[in-house]
Write a structure and sequence with these properties.
Largest sheet: 8 strands, mixed
Number of strands: 8
CATH architecture of the largest domain: 3-Layer(aba) Sandwich
Order of helices and strands: EHEHEHEHEHEEHEHHHHHH
Shape: elongated
Strand order of the largest sheet: 3-2-1-4-5-6-7-8
Subcellular location: Cytoplasm
Number of domains: 2
GO molecular function, one term: pyrroline-5-carboxylate reductase activity
Distance between the termini: 32 Å
Bound molecules: 1,4-dihydronicotinamide adenine dinucleotide, (2S)-3,4-dihydro-2H-pyrrole-2-carboxylic acid
CATH class of the largest domain: Alpha Beta
Strand content: 5-15%
EC number: 1.5.1.2
Helix content: 40-55%
Main location: cytoplasm
Keywords: Amino-acid biosynthesis, Cytoplasm, NADP, Oxidoreductase, Proline biosynthesis
CATH superfamily of the largest domain: NAD(P)-binding Rossmann-like Domain
Structural class: alpha/beta
Number of helices: 12
Length: about 260
């Protein structure tokens, strides 16, 4: 099985890294193209994959082809490779906004497509990916695609109408969580903690809290209540966060994020 990437930037690197690390496809069977020499060299040095400047070469050689360019470059990239893409190949897309209907129209022929939305924690094997296969994807293809996508974290098949919500809640959300960690650390620094130590404390608190949600399956509100002692420190922090519109800010940010995803 040969795996190809068109665009060898951040997400492509995270995805191929997970797949190689899990031993699902060896580096020698992975080929990537990028218009930037620096982008090609980066993944070649880091993962030992084959690289080329020719997108068509990747489209011709790959059994599974990941389109890992920015959404703005999808149309021109598909235009460039559409003649090389065969019916027995599988195309995996990772861009927000690019619907299965739009993708099928761009290829102009029956193509097996799995539309996905991954996220950057894939880099450390803790990604969250949503997958939507189109009607041409067989059960065998789907099982293999899920195996690949599961190499760098969790993966779930979702109906396509949910994908903009996925962009908001997991595709883009690492950025908001990093902002939260940064802000938490700033607060600790303001209280006298050295910065490096503050990042460690903040990140481990977020990591542990996320693990509690996943492992206990308790309502996040119940877990919050477990931290809040009567007349204690936490409820005072919760009061100030509510006053500042903390939860509403996150909800509104996700609505804006999903809106842009729909418009791309
Ligand atoms: N960064 C993230 O957190 C996530 C990104 N995505 C999606 O993944 C895709 C890639 O994003 P990133 O890896 O972050 O971007 P990136 O900018 O790191 O990588 C894109 C690569 O594509 C190359 N490229 C541009 N035009 C090209 C062309 N015509 N032919 C070949 N290569 C070309 C660029 O030189 C660059 O190396 C985007 O569609 C993005 O929306 C999805 C989920 C999360
Ligand atoms: O910001 C973006 O457009 C991409 C999609 C999801 C995360 N990053």
């Amino acid at each position: 099985m040969k795996l190809g990437f068109i665009g060898t930037g951040n997400m492509a690197g995270a995805i191929m890294g997970g797949i190689i690390k899990k031993g699902i496809i060896p580096a020698e069977e992975i080929i990537g193209s990028d218009i930037m020499e620096t982008g090609r060299n980066h993944v070649k040095e880091l993962y030992g994959i084959q690289v080329t400047a020719d997108n068509k070469e990747v489209a011709e050689k790959a059994d599974i082809l990941v389109l890992s360019v920015k959404p703005q470059f999808y149309a021109e990239t598909i235009q460039e490779i559409r003649e090389s893409v065969r019916e027995d190949q599988m195309v995996i897309t990772i861009a927000p906004g690019k619907t299965l209907a739009w993708l099928e129209e761009q290829f102009g022929k029956p193509v097996r497509i799995v539309r996905t939305m991954p996220n950057t924690p894939a880099l450390v094997g803790e990604g969250m990916t949503a997958a939507c296969p189109n009607q041409y994807v067989t059960e065998k293809d789907k099982a293999y695609a899920l195996k690949l996508l599961g190499a760098f974290g969790k993966v779930e098949v979702v109906p396509e109408h949910m994908i903009d919500a996925v962009v908001a809640v997991s595709g883009s959300s690492p950025a908001y969580v990093f902002m939260l960690i940064e802000a938490m650390a700033d607060g600790a620094v303001a209280e006298g903690m050295p910065r490096a130590q503050a990042y460690e404390f903040a990140a481990q608190a977020v990591y542990g809290s996320a693990k509690m949600v996943l492992e206990t399956k308790k309502h996040p509100g119940e877990l919050k209540d477990m931290v809040c002692s009567p007349a204690g420190t936490t409820i005072e922090a919760v009061r100030v966060l509510e006053q500042s519109g903390f939860r509403s800010a996150v909800i509104e940010a996700e609505k804006a994020c999903a809106e842009v995803s729909r418009s791309l």
